[in-house]
Amino acid sequence: MQNNHQHKRFSLEGAESIIEKINTSVNFDYKLYRQDIQGSMAHATMLEKQGIITKTDYQKIKEGLKSILKEIDEGTFTFSHKLEDIHMNIEARLFELIGTAAGRLHTARSRNDQVASDFRLWIKDKAEKIGEDLKTLINCLLKRAEEHAASFMPGFTHLQIAQPITFGHHLMAYVEMFGRDLSRMHDAIDRMDESPLGAAALAGTSFPINRFMTANLLGFREPTRNSIDSVSDRDFAVEFLANIAIAAMHLSRLSEEIILWSTSQFNFISLSDAFSTGSSIMPQKKNPDAAELIRAKTGRINGSLIALLTVMKGLPLAYSKDMQEDKEAVFDSVNTLELSLIAMIGMITDLTVNLTRMKQATEAGYSTATDLADWLVRILNLPFREAHRITCQIVALAEKKKCTLAQLSLSDMQSIYPNITNNNIFHFLSVKNSVESRQSYGGTAPQEVFRQIDYWKKRIANNKKA
Ligand code: ARG
Predict the structure, then answer these.
(1) Please, are residues 310 and 234 in contact by the beta-carbon 8 Å criterion?
(2) Omega into 307 within 30° of 0, i.e. cis?
């Protein structure tokens, strides 16, 4: 869907009254013009089929709406603040174009069911689009994960080196998150797939309308069941914003990691020049601006969610003008998330991985201490707690000697626990063997990571709904 806001024209009106200023929404709800015209077309078609308006009036309305769509698409339509919102702007123009027949379009309809329908259509469309962007991000993470399914990296808890993992395994954790975001978008679409059109102001109408017909024409699964709820409900927008907020939270966490990894202290990755900027004063610096901004933009997205929840929480049934405040929150969040997704896709595609440095960091952090403890359990049949205590002492010894666990000698080990006599303990202290041994379902062993990658490749490719 395109919206030509770059060509949008507003009529030059003199000083607006305060009520016009506070009441007007056309400067943002013009974005709904395509859905508004689509809704009017469906409504007019139904009115004619049901014998509520004449064929002649229907033809005029249809032609008029088509011209208006063209005018707005081409940027020749003049929007007026005096006419409040997109619905009134289009209706007023229809009058100019076709005369009194225009007045028949609003039979058995109210702006209350009209705006609820338009907004659902708009959000459904955007939720699909965001779903597509999420799939692109997932595919790009899958590609990098496949490349790095066996690239060693320290895994962290409390941001302290914990156990060796692979970079691919780490990226696959994000695939799971974005996969849930994708399915949340589809769940929301499924729930909002009901047409409010025909609920009229709040109580339905005495005209013999056919709501199933308009629902069908607009691509909704079915009409909503209760006319009061139809015009009062904005759950679909709140749920959509909540889903956006969760996805933004995931993007922010990934951004935070990218920022850490690209510091000279970590030095695990380098960002491409396209996604970083130089400092204006410190020549050595390469700042991860894109990642920082994705992290920061989560703030406004969360703000929009809270804003709409707050608007809705005290509203009596049915429609109140408060609900006009639903739109900017949603529009801004959609723009923000789409931009963040595109930037993240670019950053992930372009980043280069410093394998040597990541492996060094893994080895330096006593990350195989758990493997040592596991060995004591498995080979010497010690209770895990006892093995843990002994391992702590061995790590302390290595720290004192300023060496890695693998660099200790067998007699060093024996000085802590004399029953360690088997040289094969050292086999388990290498990062490679540690990673390869974690073959439990969902674990970090490369073969497990490949299995996860395979699962997601199939799920994304085969199931449109993922
Ligand atoms: N611009 C309004 C909105 O976005 C349209 C509905 C107006 N309804 C009314 N009863 N004044 O909510």
Answers:
(1) no
(2) no
Asked whether the beta carbons of 394 and 405 are under 8 A apart, the reply is yes
Residue 240 CA to residue 306 CA, distance in Å, equals 12
Q: Which of 82, 85, 308 to mutate to test the pocket of ligand 1 (most atoms within 8 A of CB)?
A: 85
**pLDDT score recorded for residue 17:** 87
Question: Does the pLDDT value for residue 280 go beyond 80?
Answer: no
Structure token pair of residue 398: 């290595």
- Give residue 64 CA to ligand 1 midpoint distance, Å: 23
Instruction: Please tell me the distance from the alpha carbon of residue 112 to that of residue 116, in angstroms, as a whole number.
Output: 6
The residue whose two tokens read 């490349």 is 147
Closest by alpha carbon to 207, among 116, 318, 110?
110
> Residue with the nearest Cα to atom 12 of ligand 1?
324
* Residue 112: closest CA among 189, 217, 224, 240: 224
Q: Which helix (H) or strand (E) holds 163?
A: strand 160-166
Query: Candidates 82, 87, 111, 330: which one to mutate for ligand 1, based on the most atoms within 8 Å of Cβ?
Result: 111
Report which residue type is found at 338: E
Half-sphere exposure of 243 (CA within 13 A, CB side): 28
Q: What lines the ligand 1 site, CB under 6 Å?
A: 25, 29, 85, 111-112, 115, 319, 321, 323-324
Task: Give yes or no for a contact between 425 and 443, defined as CB atoms under 8 angstroms apart.
Answer: no
5 catalytic? Reply is: no
Q: Is 252 labeled as catalytic in the residue annotation? A: no
Q: Which residues pair with 152 in a beta bridge?
A: 166
Which atom of ligand 1 is closest in space to residue 321's alpha carbon? 12
Q: Which residue has the higher pLDDT, 428 or 334?
A: 334
Residues contacting 94, CB < 8 A, separation 6+: 61, 64, 65, 68, 102, 105
Average pLDDT over residues 142-162: 97
Residues 459, 179: contact at Cβ < 8 Å? yes
Extended strands (E) in 167-304: 194-195, 222-223, 269-270, 277-278, 286-287
**6 pLDDT above the threshold of 70:** no
**What pLDDT band is residue 7 in, cutting at 50, 70 and 90?**
low
> Alpha-carbon distance 22 to 25, whole Å?
8
What is the rounded distance in angstroms from the CA atom of residue 434 to the CA atom of residue 446?
Answer: 11
Tell me how far CA of residue 238 lies from CA of 188, 242, 285, 295, 376, in angstroms.
10, 6, 41, 22, 53
Size of the chain, expressed as the number of residues it contains: 466
The predicted pLDDT at position 393 comes to 96
**Of 17, 158, 280, 411, which is the active-site residue?**
158
Where does the pLDDT of residue 1 fall: very low under 50, low under 70, confident under 90, or very high at 90 and above?
A: very low
